[in-house]
Design a protein that fits this description.
By secondary structure, the chain is an alpha+beta fold. It contains 2 helices and 6 strands.
Length: 94
């Protein structure tokens, strides 16, 4: 097992033991989908691609792809991105 995998496994166990949220301990994105009209992504690393039909957001584990129609970046903050529009799908890319 590689060093990175051992470190991640240890952090997962520690987060469980201390009852800490895994998104904070493991530096994972937190994604909240509100119906099919709004997506909140916390703990992002920036916007990779932005069109009215596709938005890709960089995270530590890869990218989050949002597909839809009339997509708009409603807010881009240091720790949070808000996407609004008609959302068809949210997918994780490595």
């Amino acid at each position: 097992m590689a060093w990175r995998e051992r470190k991640q496994k240890f952090q997962q166990q520690l987060a469980g033991f201390l009852e800490l949220p895994k998104d904070i301990m493991l530096d994972l994105p937190k994604i909240v989908l509100v119906g099919n009209v709004q997506v909140f992504i916390e703990n992002h690393r920036g916007i990779v691609e932005y069109t009215p039909e596709l938005i890709r957001v960089s995270t530590t584990g890869g990218e989050v792809e949002i597909t839809g129609r009339e997509l708009v970046l409603r807010a881009i903050l240091p720790e949070e991105v808000v996407v609004e529009g008609k959302i068809f799908g949210v997918r994780f890319l490595e």
